[in-house]
């Protein structure tokens, strides 16, 4: 995985102030990184709450607890690029409008779906699979188990879309890839910049 | 009234990590569950741990298979691992053959951990695959072992032990590679041998009776047979699934001596049935001509089998179907997968001929299904994915028909192995 010249030597870098964030929308004081994910990390997952069967109340509660696209973005935009000293957010590989969240229908404890479309920095980015893997791992670790995660390359952004998408959707391949020391190490390094 | 699927308390202890599958022993009340680099064997009689296999693999154990036809009092399990090897393990009960049965059924001999682990011996490593081993299956007699891998190949191994017969030797026997099948274009996710049923041999005298099927990441299923030269050849490619075929099972009890059908399930969210097409003309030809009459290998293209997709089950699943199981006793099929749903299906009993006309218009897939959904349970493992489902006999105190009543056993990402009672009113 180590190489002398990166695939894309001069990627476009977004300034931190250009990244989408909750703080801008609400114009409140900046949330410190220490407490930024408390709502995700510390809240008791509603799927495990056996007593939440009383209809309306439970549903409202679940709606409060439910994640939105911005929170998903915050979780994955801080993942580092495998070859540049920048995050996937700064490189615009992860984009807020390309995060699609389908909350649980009917039953608040039912399945939710997160679809993330990634835009690799150049057309032939050989590291697309690794980036996808890191994003998938990050979400699997951070989200409650009723979230099903789909990672895809944004249409037209990558030469081997189908192969990459198929690999990233294959649970068995993902599990085996993470047991590969080299690949697992690269992913671990990419996730070091994530606050948790 | 529809059948009722109700949970039975899960096997103890919980494994607290992803478990990939649970494989019942062909006759004894035991079930083997691979998780991380170990396999936990549960007793179906006590619904608790019988023994554990550890220390044989460097990476996750993905699959396991019990060797059939072992002598009484002995067990052999073969494990397939992400470390690209298959391992042969033997369990020698120091008690007599009745002792093992007793031990399994009544939980005797469940001493301290160390003693248990000594009971399983890691005999032999089968090396050859380049990447993760994904599936393992014994042929009905136990003569052949098939392994499949991400390296796109299927290997067939033969137990060529020293004439002692399978299971007589303590060292795991001696295994030779009989064939390496390289035609798939992607990971081979699963292999399955056709069961030894009436009708299996009758189909074609030009091949030996063993039939192997393989399912792949390349969206196809392939059928393999051994020709009269001892060469294993692909006789059919089953195309129709639109995504990875996660696995397959042969019909355990075909009707009226027909050739067994194939059940397949896929990341395309469907469950399908495939049937071997029997051409009358072909049969006649086979009787009058010797197909081997001096024709070189390359000319034997006409010896392909024609399989067609004869059913697509009513859609229940919203995501990958990782597993499905076909009951020998009732003919019912159950499926499970990423969406956590457990679905139960039964086949319509009306004669098949009535539907044949319909399906003839669409070669890819029949328009209507002969299978009905009898029941569907949501959140079978809470919010977690279900990796495996299998029919299995009940031996626990909760059944009045020990060794006869069938239950379902599901295995999930939550590390829970859960039995389900199935009642058909």
From TrEMBL, chain A:
<feature type="domain" description="MIP18 family-like">
    <location>
        <begin position="69"/>
        <end position="145"/>
    </location>
</feature>
<dbReference type="Pfam" id="PF01883">
    <property type="entry name" value="FeS_assembly_P"/>
</dbReference>
<feature type="region of interest" description="Disordered">
    <location>
        <begin position="1"/>
        <end position="37"/>
    </location>
</feature>
<keyword id="KW-0159">Chromosome partition</keyword>
<protein>
    <recommendedName>
        <fullName>MIP18 family-like domain-containing protein</fullName>
    </recommendedName>
</protein>
<comment type="similarity">
    <text>Belongs to the MIP18 family.</text>
</comment>
<dbReference type="InterPro" id="IPR034904">
    <property type="entry name" value="FSCA_dom_sf"/>
</dbReference>
<dbReference type="InterPro" id="IPR002744">
    <property type="entry name" value="MIP18-like"/>
</dbReference>
<dbReference type="InterPro" id="IPR039796">
    <property type="entry name" value="MIP18"/>
</dbReference>
<dbReference type="GO" id="GO:0007059">
    <property type="term" value="P:chromosome segregation"/>
</dbReference>
<feature type="region of interest" description="Disordered">
    <location>
        <begin position="45"/>
        <end position="64"/>
    </location>
</feature>
<dbReference type="GO" id="GO:0051604">
    <property type="term" value="P:protein maturation"/>
</dbReference>
<feature type="compositionally biased region" description="Polar residues">
    <location>
        <begin position="7"/>
        <end position="21"/>
    </location>
</feature>
Automatic annotation (TrEMBL), chain B:
<protein>
    <recommendedName>
        <fullName>Probable cytosolic iron-sulfur protein assembly protein 1</fullName>
    </recommendedName>
</protein>
<dbReference type="Pfam" id="PF00400">
    <property type="entry name" value="WD40"/>
</dbReference>
<dbReference type="InterPro" id="IPR036322">
    <property type="entry name" value="WD40_repeat_dom_sf"/>
</dbReference>
<keyword id="KW-0853">WD repeat</keyword>
<dbReference type="InterPro" id="IPR001680">
    <property type="entry name" value="WD40_rpt"/>
</dbReference>
<dbReference type="GO" id="GO:0016226">
    <property type="term" value="P:iron-sulfur cluster assembly"/>
</dbReference>
<comment type="similarity">
    <text>Belongs to the WD repeat CIA1 family.</text>
</comment>
<dbReference type="InterPro" id="IPR028608">
    <property type="entry name" value="CIAO1/Cia1"/>
</dbReference>
<feature type="repeat" description="WD">
    <location>
        <begin position="238"/>
        <end position="284"/>
    </location>
</feature>
<dbReference type="GO" id="GO:0097361">
    <property type="term" value="C:cytosolic [4Fe-4S] assembly targeting complex"/>
</dbReference>
<comment type="function">
    <text>Essential component of the cytosolic iron-sulfur (Fe/S) protein assembly machinery. Required for the maturation of extramitochondrial Fe/S proteins.</text>
</comment>
<feature type="repeat" description="WD">
    <location>
        <begin position="126"/>
        <end position="158"/>
    </location>
</feature>
<feature type="repeat" description="WD">
    <location>
        <begin position="181"/>
        <end position="224"/>
    </location>
</feature>
<keyword id="KW-0677">Repeat</keyword>
<dbReference type="InterPro" id="IPR015943">
    <property type="entry name" value="WD40/YVTN_repeat-like_dom_sf"/>
</dbReference>
<dbReference type="InterPro" id="IPR020472">
    <property type="entry name" value="WD40_PAC1"/>
</dbReference>
């Amino acid at each position: 995985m180590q190489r002398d010249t990166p695939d894309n030597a001069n990627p476009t870098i977004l300034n931190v102030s250009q990244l989408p964030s909750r703080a801008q929308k609400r114009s409140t004081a900046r949330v410190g990184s220490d407490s930024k994910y408390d709502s995700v990390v510390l809240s008791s997952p509603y799927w495990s709450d056996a007593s939440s069967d009383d209809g309306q109340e439970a549903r409202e509660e679940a709606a409060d607890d439910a994640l939105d696209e911005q929170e998903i973005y915050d979780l994955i935009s801080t993942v580092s690029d495998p070859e540049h000293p920048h995050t996937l957010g700064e490189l615009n590989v992860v984009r807020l409008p390309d995060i699609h969240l389908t909350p649980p229908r009917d039953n608040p404890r039912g399945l939710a779906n997160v679809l993330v479309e990634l835009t690799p920095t150049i057309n032939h980015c050989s590291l697309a699979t690794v980036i996808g893997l890191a994003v998938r791992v990050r979400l699997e670790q951070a989200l409650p188990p009723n979230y099903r995660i789909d990672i895809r390359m944004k249409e037209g952004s990558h030469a081997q879309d189908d192969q990459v998408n198929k690999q990233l959707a294959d649970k068995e391949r993902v599990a085996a890839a993470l047991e590969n020391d080299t690949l697992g190490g690269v992913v671990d390094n990419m996730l070091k910049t994530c606050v948790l | 009234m529809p059948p009722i699927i109700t949970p039975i308390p899960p096997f103890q202890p919980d494994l607290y990590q992803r478990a990939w599958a649970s494989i019942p022993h062909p006759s004894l009340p035991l079930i083997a569950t691979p998780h991380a680099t170990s396999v936990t064997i549960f007793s179906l009689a006590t619904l608790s741990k019988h023994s554990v296999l550890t220390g044989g693999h460097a990476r996750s154990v993905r699959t396991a298979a019990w060797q059939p036809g072992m002598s009484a009092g002995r067990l052999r399990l073969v494990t397939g691992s992400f470390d690209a090897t298959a391992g042969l393990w033997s369990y020698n009960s120091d008690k007599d053959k009745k002792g093992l049965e007793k031990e399994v059924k009544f939980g005797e001999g469940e001493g301290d951990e160390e003693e248990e682990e000594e009971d399983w011996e890691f005999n032999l490593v089968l090396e050859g695959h380049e990447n993760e081993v994904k599936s393992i299956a014994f042929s009905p007699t136990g003569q052949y072992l098939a392994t499949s891998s991400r390296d796109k190949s299927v290997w067939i191994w033969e137990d060529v032990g020293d004439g002692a017969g399978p299971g007589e030797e303590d060292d795991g026997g001696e295994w030779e590679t009989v064939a390496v099948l390289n035609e798939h274009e992607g990971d081979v996710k699963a292999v399955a041998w056709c069961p030894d049923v009436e009708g299996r041999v009758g189909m074609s005298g030009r091949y030996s009776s063993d039939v192997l099927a393989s399912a792949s990441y390349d969206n196809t299923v392939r059928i393999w047979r051994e020709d009269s030269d001892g060469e294993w050849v692909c006789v059919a490619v089953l195309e129709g699934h639109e995504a990875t075929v996660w696995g397959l099972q042969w019909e355990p009890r075909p009707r009226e001596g027909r050739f067994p059908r194939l059940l397949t399930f896929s990341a395309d969210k469907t469950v399908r049935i495939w049937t071997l097409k029997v051409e009358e003309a072909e049969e006649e030809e086979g009787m009058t001509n010797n197909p081997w009459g001096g024709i070189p290998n390359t000319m034997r293209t006409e010896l392909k089998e024609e399989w067609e997709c004869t059913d697509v089950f009513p859609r229940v699943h919203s995501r990958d179907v990782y597993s499905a199981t076909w009951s020998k006793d009732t003919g019912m099929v159950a499926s499970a997968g990423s969406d956590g749903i457990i679905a139960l299906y039964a086949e319509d009993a009306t004669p098949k001929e009535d539907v044949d006309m319909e399906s003839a218009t669409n070669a890819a897939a029949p328009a209507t299904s002969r299978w009905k959904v009898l029941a569907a349970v949501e959140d079978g493992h809470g919010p977690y994915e279900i990796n495996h489902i299998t029919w299995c006999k009940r031996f626990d105190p909760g059944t009045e028909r020990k060794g006869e009543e069938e239950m379902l056993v599901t295995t999930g990402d939550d590390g829970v192995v859960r039995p389900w009672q199935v009642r058909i009113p």
